[in-house]
Design brief:
- The protein is built from 13 helices and 20 strands.
- The protein has 459 residues and is an alpha/beta fold.
- It folds into 3 domains: 174 residues, 3-Layer(bba) Sandwich (FAD/NAD(P)-binding domain), CATH 3.50.50; 103 residues; 97 residues, Polyamine Oxidase, Chain A, domain 2.
- The strands form 5 sheets. The protein has a 7-stranded mixed β-sheet with strand order 8-7-16-17-18-15-19.
- Helix 1 packs parallel to helix 8, helix 2 packs across helix 13 and helix 4 crosses helix 7.
- Bound molecules: flavin-adenine dinucleotide (FAD).
């Protein structure tokens, strides 16, 4: 079966890979001249990489880890110590750690929380632990019901002190969806906590050893091609053409005209796909609901310094009002390695009020925050100097996971028998993440395979 897929982000590529594995012929059409969508990266004039986002892989990503295994590229994941490290705003330049011992879950998570005495007091730890019991006992059903509430509302219902939010969950919700706990759905935090606490290595983190388009997307493309499929760059979808019965007759691709296939897949971001919904589909509930899913703005910043700022080989939670997580990529990522100079990659979030501002203003505000994170490097005679910077803005990134979104997320099968959806926003248990994108691609390939008999009979 020939399958036309629009979009070569992780979801489109994973969908293509699993279709090719099943003996079908996927052709992936990507609008841009770079693979990866939200994991895309480029080289600057000096040959230094800059990326759409600082990307972390978790132990709790079974489908992503399986994909690395199937592609025989597991050695490209650089696993870090099993810890979560937070800056301490009240003591600039210092860190507070949650270290997970080598014990089974959830004991290792409990030990990590109990072992940290900088951020939470004993009564706070106990009330938070008690608050989590229903989620741990009732599992996914409880987590889904909690989509009615923001995280702050959920904490209040559990009588958990507001300070727990300030200390831990502002940082975590910014890391998970680039928004604060007053906005984020509690389903997001509860899903992450369930994975982190119930799986021994759930919260263990890895960095890719280089730029994602080369180190992760290219091997998927090679795999698809080796099985007779293809991935074509610079080929944007322009229009979805329909038959009389509202099924898809072809994809209109710029430069290639009308592409006919047995099945069609949108692997576009949700905000882009909404622009392509044919008029005749607008009354269909699955597509109408997408109106409620909107991308959240985020900014990824790269700062190259003339000296080393840290020796920490890990992701750091800045706990800064402007910044989210950051890392010194000259240490954490093999291909970006530099023994003498730091390259910080920082996620700037929430970015709603900044996304339209000039790069210079964003860098200036970031540098002010960095002075608090690294006070000794930006005072005195021998201060670190910024050599160059790069700002990558994504005005509509992953869907903003506010309360009520879960029931808006579509399945990979749609009411149109030869049209399917994939993308991190489609329904799968891993929210808007790389794991979610890969799983959605796998589920989409599965849905196409299951319907392939009907589709071939009709065509
Ligand atoms: C700053 C940032 C940091 C992040 N950090 C993490 C992290 O640490 N861990 C994690 O798991 N996830 C992280 N994510 C989320 C993760 O990157 C996404 O969830 C995932 O990559 C989305 O994949 P996707 O395939 O669903 O969508 P996308 O990557 O958006 O892919 C959609 C593709 O469609 C293409 N396209 C658009 N229009 C057309 C058209 N007309 N025709 C053809 N193609 C088109 C796009 O160019 C793109 O390639 C982060 C995201 C950002 C932005």
């Amino acid at each position: 079966m020939r399958v036309a897929i629009a979009g070569a982000g992780l979801a489109g590529l994973a969908c293509g890979k699993y279709l090719a594995d099943a003996g079908h012929t996927p052709i992936v059409y990507e609008a841009r001249n770079v693979l990866g969508g939200k994991i895309a990266a480029w080289k600057d004039e000096d040959g230094d990489w800059y990326e759409t986002g600082l990307h972390i892989f978790f132990g709790a990503y079974p489908n992503m880890l399986q994909l690395f295994k199937e592609l025989k590229i597991e050695d490209r994941l650089q696993w870090k110590s099993h810890s979560m490290i937070f800056n301490q705003p009240n003591e600039p330049g210092t860190y507070s750690r949650f270290d997970f011992p080598d014990l089974p879950a959830p004991i290792n998570g409990i030990a990590a929380i109990l072992g940290n005495n900088d951020m939470l007091s004993w009564p706070e730890k106990i009330s938070f632990g008690l608050g989590l019991i229903p989620a741990m006992l009732r599992g996914q059903a409880y987590v889904e019901e909690a989509d009615k509430y923001s995280w702050t509302e959920w904490l209040r219902q559990q009588n958990i002190p507001e300070r727990v939010n300030d200390e831990v969950f502002i940082a975590m919700s910014k890391a998970l969806n680039f928004i604060g706990p007053n906005e984020i759905s509690s389903t997001v935090l509860l899903t992450a906590l369930n994975r982190f606490l119930q799986e021994k290595n759930g919260s263990k983190m890895a960095f890719l050893d280089g730029a994602p388009p080369e180190r992760l997307c290219e091997p998927i493309v090679e795999h698809i091609r080796s099985l007779g499929g293809d991935v074509i760059l610079n080929s944007p979808l322009k229009k979805i053409n329909l038959n009389e019965d509202r099924s898809v007759s072809s994809f209109e691709i710029e430069g290639l005209e009308n592409i006919e296939a047995d099945a069609y897949v949108s692997a576009l971001p949700v905000d882009v796909f909404k622009l392509f919904i044919p008029e005749k589909w607008e009354s269909i509930e699955t597509f109408k609901k997408l109106d409620g899913l909107k991308g959240v703005p985020v900014i990824n910043i790269h700062l190259w310094f003339d000296k080393k700022l840290t020796d920490i080989d890990h992701l750091l939670f800045s706990r800064s009002p402007l910044l989210s997580v950051y890392a010194d990529m000259s240490i954490t990522c093999k291909e970006y390695e530099d023994p003498d100079k730091s390259m910080l990659e920082l996620v700037f979030a929430p970015a709603k009020d900044w996304i339209r501002r000039k790069d210079e203003e964003i860098i200036s505000a970031t540098m002010d925050e960095l002075k608090k994170l690294f006070p000794t490097h930006f005072s005195g005679n021998d201060q670190a100097k910024l050599r160059k910077y790069k700002v990558v803005k994504t005005p509509l990134s992953v869907y903003k996971a506010v309360p009520g979104c879960q029931e808006l997320r579509p399945n990979q099968s749609t009411p149109i028998h030869n049209f399917f959806l994939t993308g991190d926003y489609t329904m799968q248990r891993y929210l808007a993440s790389m794991e979610g994108a890969v799983l959605s691609g796998k589920l989409c390939a599965e849905a196409i395979k299951n319907s392939s008999k009907d589709l071939t009979i009709e065509t």
